[in-house]
Automatic annotation (TrEMBL):
Residues 41-119 form the Adaptor protein ClpS core domain. The gene is clpS. The keyword Protease applies. This is ATP-dependent Clp protease adapter protein ClpS. Involved in the modulation of the specificity of the ClpAP-mediated ATP-dependent protein degradation. It comes from the Bacteria. It comes from Nitrobacter hamburgensis (strain DSM 10229 / NCIMB 13809 / X14). One of its GO terms (molecular function) is peptidase activity. SUPFAM superfamilies: ClpS-like (SSF54736). Signal peptide: none annotated.
Length: 124
C-alpha cells in the first residue's frame, strides 16, 4: 500500500542537466539568469576627403570622383566645386579597408598624372 508519507519523504524529482537552475554555490533555490547578448557590431566608418590645391585641373578631379567614387558628372562637379571653394570635401564614407584602398588609388592615380591632388581619410 502507498502511504502519503512515502510520497512526502521521497526525494524531489531531479532536473535534467540543461535545466539545472542552481547557481553552483549550494543554494538550489537560487536561479542563474544568463542574458544572451546579440553580437552584431556596427563597423567603424571613415570619411574619404580630397583637398584643394592650385594646380590640379578641375576636370581631373571630376574624373577621379567618377572613376573611384561612382559619382555621376553632376555630383562629381558639385563635390569638386565645394572643395575648390572650401578647401576640403567628402567623396564618400567607407569601412577602414575600403577607405584606405580609395585613398591609395586616388594618390597613385594623381601621382601617375603628375598632379598634386591630396586624398585623406578621417574616422567618423
Ligand atoms: N583649385 C583647383 C583649380 O583651380 C581645382 C581643384 C578642385 C583642385 C578640387 C583640387 O580637390 C581639388 N584648378
Amino acid at each position: 500500500m502507498l502511504l502519503v508519507e512515502d510520497i512526502r519523504s521521497a526525494p524531489a524529482p531531479r532536473m535534467g542537466n540543461d535545466e539545472d537552475r542552481t547557481d553552483g554555490r549550494g543554494d538550489p533555490a537560487a536561479s542563474v539568469i544568463t542574458k544572451v547578448k546579440p553580437k552584431t557590431k556596427r563597423p567603424n566608418l571613415y570619411r574619404v576627403l580630397i583637398l584643394n590645391d592650385d594646380y590640379t585641373p578641375m576636370e581631373f578631379v571630376v574624373h577621379v570622383l567618377e572613376k573611384f567614387f561612382q559619382k555621376d558628372v553632376e555630383a562629381a562637379t558639385e563635390i569638386m566645386l565645394h572643395v575648390h571653394h572650401h578647401g576640403i570635401g567628402e567623396c564618400g564614407v567607407f569601412t577602414y579597408e575600403i577607405a584606405e584602398t580609395k585613398v591609395t588609388q586616388v594618390m597613385d592615380f594623381a601621382r601617375k598624372h603628375q598632379h598634386p591632388l591630396q586624398c585623406v581619410m578621417e574616422k567618423k
